[in-house]
Amino acid sequence: MQLPAGSPIADLPWVVTIGALGGSGDDWDPVVCGPYERGHALALARAVVADDDLMAVVEPLRPLDGVDAIRREVGLARTADFSDVHSEPGSGGVVPAEPPGPAEVRAGWRRMAAGILDP
């Protein structure tokens, strides 16, 4: 997902889903992991699928605080008009060249928790 520079979505927690490539004959449930900061999620996904017949999907996780908030988000998604959306260059954050280590991931969790609890 290419994000415009300064996109508020970039600051959300992100999850990574790792699954088999279609037609590979593998029969297993995808693995969903996270949350991660966006750059960490992208770097981890790239590293995991780089040398294997796997696919990765990296997507934002919306920390919504109840049924009404989820319904509002579903309503917005249903009525979104993407007909005039242009993909602007920019990553919406820095993607590390190497995947983050456990200490970096934990530091990211602390930053995300602070952002969720104290918006």
Brief digest:
The protein has 119 residues and is of the alpha+beta class. It has three helices and three strands; from the N terminus they run ββαβαα. It has a three-stranded antiparallel β-sheet.
Describe this structure in words.
- The protein has 119 residues and is of the alpha+beta class.
- The protein has one domain.
- A three-stranded antiparallel beta sheet has the order 2-1-3.
- It contains three helices and three strands.
Topology:
Layout: E1 14-20, E2 31-36, H1 38-49, E3 54-60, H2 67-79, H3 102-117
Antiparallel strand pairs: 1-2, 1-3
Supply the key terms.
three-stranded antiparallel sheet; alpha+beta; 17% strand; 34% helix; 119 residues; 3 strands
Structural class: alpha+beta
Number of strands: 3
Main beta sheet: strand number and arrangement?
A: 3 strands, antiparallel
Please provide the ordered H/E string of secondary-structure elements: EEHEHH
**C-alpha Rg, in Å?**
16 Å
Shape: globular
Spatial order of the strands in the main sheet?
2-1-3
Q: Termini distance? A: 24 Å
Q: Roughly how much helix do the residues carry, as a percent range?
A: 25-40%
* Average pLDDT figure: 84
Give the low-confidence spans: 86-91
Strand content: 15-25%
Region (Disordered): 83-104
